[in-house]
Specification:
- The complex is a heterodimer of chains A (about 450) and B (about 550).
- Helix content of chain A is about 20%, strand content about 35%.
- In chain A, a hairpin with a 4-residue loop joins strand 25 and strand 26.
- Chain A is of the alpha+beta class.
- With about 550 residues, chain B is of the alpha+beta class.
- Chain B is about 25% helix and about 30% strand.
- Chain B is built from 8 helices and 29 strands.
- Chain B has a 4-stranded antiparallel beta sheet with strand order 2-29-28-27, with no helix packed on it.
- In chain B, strand 13 and strand 14 form a beta hairpin.
- The longest helix of chain B has about 40 residues.
- Chain B is globular and about 100 Å long.
- The chains are: A alpha+beta (about 450), B alpha+beta (about 550).
- Chains A and B meet through strand 1, helix 1 and helix 2 of A and helix 2 and strand 1 of B.
- Chain A: InterPro entries: Sof1, WD40/YVTN_repeat-like_dom_sf, WD40_PAC1, WD40_repeat_CS, WD40_repeat_dom_sf, WD40_rpt, WD_repeat_DCAF13/WDSOF1.
- Chain A: Belongs to the WD repeat DCAF13/WDSOF1 family.
- Chain A: It holds the Pfam family WD40.
- Chain A: It is found in: Nucleus, Nucleolus.
- Chain A: Its main location: nucleus.
Chain lengths: ~450, ~550
Amino acid sequence: MKVKVISRSTDEFTRERSQDLQRVFRNYDPNLRSQEKAVEYVRALNAAKLDKIFARPFVGAMDGHIDAVSCMAKNPNHLKGIFSGSMDGDVRLWDLATRRTVCQFPGHQGAVKGLTVSTDGRVLVSCGTDSTVRLWNVPIPSLMESDDSSSNEAKPLAVYVWKNAFWAVDHQWNGDLFATAGAQVDIWNHNRAQPVNTFEWSKDTTISIRFNPGEPNILATSASDRSITIYDLRLQSPARKIIMRTRTNSIAWNPMEPMNFTAANEDCNCYSYDARKLDEAKCVHKDHVSAVMDIDYSPTGREFVTGSYDRTVRIFQYNGGHSREIYHTKRMQRVFCVKFSSDASYVISGSDDTNLRLWKAKASEQLGVLLPRERKNHEYLEAVKNRYKHLPEVKRIVRHRHLPRPIYKAASLRRIITDAERKKDERRRAHSAPGSMPKDSLRKRRIIKEIE
Amino acid sequence: MGSKVVNEGLMNPMFSVEHQENVEEEEINVKKFLRGEVADFKVVRDKKLKGQLELREELYRKCAKAAAKADKWLMPSEGGFLEPEGIEKTWRIRQEAIGPEVDILSKKNQYDIVFPELGPYTLDFSMNGRYMVAAGEKGHLALMDLKKMDIIKEFQVRETVRDVVFLHNEKLFAAAQTKYVYMYNDSGTEMHCLKEHGAVSRLQFLRKQFLLTSINKIGQLNFQDITTGKMISNFRTGLGPLGRSVSDTMQVNRFNNEVAVGHSKGEVSMWKPTSAVPIYSRPCHMEYPVTAIAFHSNGHLMATAGMDKKIKLWDLRKHEVLQTLPGHANSLDFSQKGMLSAASGSYVQVFKDVFSTYVNHSMPKGYQTKKLLFRPYEDVLAIGHSMGWSSILVPGSGEPNFDSWVANPFETRKQRNEKEVRALLDKLPPETIMMDPTTIGCVNPTRKRGMPSQQERDAEMKAAVKGAKNLSFKKKTKGRSKPSKMAKKKQQAIIIAKKPFLEQQTKDEKDLLSKKKRKRIGEEIRLPKTFRRFSEAIG
């Protein structure tokens, strides 16, 4: 007869020296494990609770301005620096790590309405209500490191005075041109004191402007006649225009999908559009209770941050209808500008109370260098939480956010109002001839018309 | 030139056949790791969701494939086997014949330990099969390390010990003594005296929920959480009129962590800590007490033995008998590889693959078996009997490849402590014990979009009428709220509540009638109204 019995020799299954790693053997047979799903569910619940325990998104505030912060600009070449301009003409460069002012750029007489940095990070362009455009030299990072507390003052490279007040400015990607928005859209070159080109559609002011990161010649603007216009620099006339029901305060292009942009609107929603097909919004992002003032995309293209007049900062998924996260503080008043940091880890908000605030993009993220084992553990907990986040107990914990009372009340009021409108609409439809009242989706409803 | 082409033609089919065989072999194994069928996505209407679910399914398939490949190529050990040659039969091969054929380490696992005056012995193994605790009825408790083959601690409690069970690892075990249940340390220190259990006859431990279960002679089932010390629940399991059917046999189904209790009238009932009524109760042996129960690790098979000289194998999904075998069984146990062992008197039988006899072993006449236990991850069967305990070799019964993170026979102290902490973090609440543990996280099958059934509609109408009856009307002044008027108003409210349901009913009846009519008449000309009743009478 042939017989064999399981016999394991200890050397094969244990380590030789104490410096060696312990040996791990795996058998993936499901029969060895019972009640796997229940264990996963318990882990998901614990992960959701731990997430909430470690959720401390506020990193710090940068104060120094003496008037509301009206605009901010990121330096594409330097991660730690951010420029901010305030309503009294004060432009500052901040170091995010120490949260101190590195350099000040005095000169503007009125409010600074727009700030932008050229793609190579050398030149800062600022424009304001005193009808001037000023160009500054951005101090080199090595110098910034050496100076601790003394804040330098820089002299402008150039000052260009023009006819009317400016509302916004944006720099072309990988190019030499920048565009300002005011009574009309002007295209400037660094070296020329007058605009190279001007676009004008109607007599209304243009209030925001954004160049496309993928196509350097395309830019989107929004005007006070509730329109969003897309211009091509190579053409003489604007390419496309849509008119909505309410004004758009700011536009941001998706850096990973450059044909899509999201517009932050006065009616508390953000609308994502495909620039090639403007007759219908791709997605409507609803969650704010007051006008959305500013919007910025994360460099991953998967999320964007919005700041609104209702004193909150929200982070949305690029295709999600509702916000993933909301940040608010008692001390933070109307948020006028927001920026997503270039490493997708932080969000900076500039608000009415003269402070810039630095927040974490993922509230419970562990900062600093993670060991590979820690990172794997975080990834596993995230994955198991996402698998069970639809079940009621886990969903309740994951969704839970503390809202300030005015926002909670405003949100429920809005819900009641929209529910009532919808019910009335349905009743009208039910009592009228079938087909006489066409149903239109929210994505189309807010657009009045599209013009070529 | 021509021959070359022919050769290539011949080669290719061979390769493809071999490749196909390999592919098929892997396919079979992939199913083992898939954990169920692929879902049907036709019912999902939402395109975004459908895309996400299909991506998930793709990932599951990849995982299962990787696991199947690892299973095929990366396993360190191979299972045991016993192959007879010629006209030999496996059950005629005795332990003395197997002994010399195996290596020295395995031969050490065949032994008989005799303590004649210390009473029948029960045993329990720790989860990794390395430690064993043996308890003699006269009070002898011994904790042993089977790798080193030495006794860690043995002591005498000077009371009757009816059952002993390991808790979550080898550091703690519980013994059911005369009056109470005691918890001991591995150094023999008495840690706790669990008075709430009282004098119990059987103990079991639910590892995932950390629940110590006990049943006493009159059939009271206790569940205690040993991490907090709280008594979760306490049930009387007596079935039948006046609870006469008492129970003494208890076994845990490791697949879904339910406790099965065998009754003296032949029923087997399954219990969970959160309900006072059994989940499931089945008469297994008619009117004869159930003597032993055992569960297969995949949760589908159950073996029961009764005093009616039958051992029955049940399929738990279909709730029917698969096979019946004649014979008594004092104790039953399934091994990790699915072998069933049955012991009666001094005779032990091991069955393989649904009741084909594999190995038999008979002990000297004086030894009456009390408990059979397969040792996890080894090809060893331990027998506790009236004179002590023995251990025999059963090739092929144990799982050769262990998973370090489930149970590690070569655990170090640090690994054991880490495992304890992790197990406590993953401790399941008692509500997770259910008949089919895979339903957690599953989607409820949606109701068909079509009409709700008549029952549901009636229920809805009743609910609406009840709501209308509960309406309270504002009392008006100046004689406008007379009782007659209020009564009328209430009646009106009920009629309004009923209206939509009655309308729906008439509409459905109309639709049904017209459909039936149209079917019958079909091609024929539609008769004028006056003649229609004649067509109905004829048709």
